[in-house]
Write a structure and sequence with these properties.
The chain is built from 2 helices and 3 strands; from the N terminus they run ααβββ. By secondary structure, the chain is an alpha+beta fold. Strand 1 and strand 2 form a beta hairpin. The longest helix is centred in the middle third of the chain and has 22 residues.
Length: 65
């Protein structure tokens, strides 16, 4: 993580952060779909610039909230 923070200025890991966020969001969507509309699933991850850009995505069933 320290190396990520050091290289953040150069945007070296921007693509990697984006990929990890998309994967986490997709996993949350799939899990919410499996659990059904009675449950909500929230993915709290980092996107577009690492730890400074914490983002949350919430799904309920097949619907994004």
């Amino acid at each position: 993580m320290n190396l990520d923070l050091r290289d953040l200025v150069d945007g070296k890991y921007e693509g990697e952060w984006e990929r990890l966020f998309r994967e986490g969001e997709e996993l949350a969507r799939r899990l919410a779909h499996e659990l059904g509309p009675d449950r909500t699933v929230t993915y709290k991850g980092v996107a577009h610039g690492g730890p400074a850009a914490l983002t949350a995505v919430t799904w309920q069933g097949c619907r994004r909230l």
